Amino acid sequence: MQFTIVGAGALGSILGAHLLAAGHEVALVARGARAEQLRAQGLRIRGLRDINLPCRVLAPGAAEREPGVLIYTVKTYQMDEALAAHTHTRPLAVFSVANGVMKNEQLRDVHGAATVLGCMANVSGELMSDGEVLFTRNVRMPLGPLAGYGGPSAASIATVIDAAGVVTEAVADIESVEWSKFAGWLAMFTLAVIARTTTGVYLENPRLAAVGVKLVKEAVALARARGIALVDQSPIAVVSVDAAATPSAAAEILRDIGRNLIAQAPQHRMSALQDFDAGRRLEVHETLGYAWRESQRLGLAAPTMELCYELVSGLDSLPRSS
User: Fold this and answer.
1) What contacts 68, CB < 8 A, 6 or more positions away?
2) Whether residue 269 sits in one domain with residue 184
3) How far, in Å, are 51, 62, 304 from residue 26 at the CA level?
4) Is 28 within 8 Å of 3 (Cβ atoms)?
5) Are residues 116 and 133 in the same domain?
């Protein structure tokens, strides 16, 4: 199968390396120092798997080949620029591994609903300064058709990626899967940036857990107002949080997650906190901001979301050094 991957950070490199190692035709779209790094060194992956392979590198918007399956692996705030460079690209299917759900609307606007798949990536790594990528988590990457999709079956694409070594499955209810993660991820993202500490510590804190519950409830109300059924899944069982008999019972669900992380992964930090501490831009306007704007559009009360959006976007705008 033929793949074009837009973005050669950690996840783009991990996907590209696995697909190349499995014998598929892959091109990575990159620019600047990262493009030169890839041309000189190829893809170098270590951690859960060691891969060292040369790769084809394309400049943004280059039309050297048919794109096949087009995968966007850039950050949410890079999507507009990445999409603008590929306005005339005609993929068989396209999806984004970015956080949140705004990405699907952006993909439809540029590539058309008939090609767009939904995706929720629970796979991660870290791009090191020397160009090597540390592959750290390989949990699950569901793919599924969104309304109007008419491309190759999600199962055929998922089977190829899964066989290459990145755990992937086709699901029929991808919108539910995406929003169920998003509703919990919003709380964890927000609290990570405000608390500036490891994930287990802030989730176990009773006052911060109470704020997390309010964010989850407002995100659940937004999803339901859009007609999306939610399910309990990682990182937070949002349906259970929303249905808890009391606010304190709901907070205990988050605190239990925190306790488990303190015991099993005491150093775990959200990527948002890593970005913040490194002086990098946060994905706040396209995730938390998107949820707030949608709540406004639908006439939903979301006071905690509004306040947290102002706080996190304000923190993001402050000067900070890497």
Assistant:
1) 1, 2, 3, 4, 25, 91, 92
2) yes
3) 15, 14, 44
4) no
5) yes
Q: Give burial (CB, 10 Å; 0-12/13-18/19+) of 35.
A: middle
CA 224 to chain centre: 21
Segment 268-273 shows an average pLDDT of 87
**Length of the chain as a residue count:** 322
Asked whether the beta carbons of 184 and 199 are under 8 A apart, the reply is no
State both tokens at 132: 């090597």
Write the DSSP symbol of residue 234.
Answer: S
Q: pLDDT band at 110, cuts 50/70/90?
A: very high
Compute the distance between CA of residue 307 and CA of residue 297 in angstroms, rounded to an integer: 17
Q: How far apart are the first and last CA of the chain?
A: 40
Q: Are residues 135 and 228 in the same domain?
A: no
pLDDT tens digit sequence for 231-244? 998 789 999 999 99
Helix spans in the chain (H): 10-21, 32-41, 79-84, 102-111, 154-164, 174-195, 199-204, 206-225, 238-243, 247-264, 271-277, 288-297, 303-317
The pair phi, psi for residue 171, each rounded to 5°, is -130, 150
Q: What is the pLDDT of residue 171?
A: 96
What mean pLDDT is reported for the chain? 94
Which one-letter amino acid corresponds to residue 98?
Answer: A
Give the lowest-confidence range in 36-40, 45-49, 271-275, 301-305. Answer: 271-275
pLDDT value of residue 12 = 97
pLDDT of 321 > 70? The answer is: no
In a domain? residue 322 = no
Distances from the Cα of 111 to the Cα of 66, 83, 158, 276, angstroms: 14, 9, 20, 32
What integer is the mean pLDDT of 309-321? Answer: 92
The CATH number covering residue 74 comes to 3.40.50.720
Classify 191 as helix, strand or coil.
Answer: helix
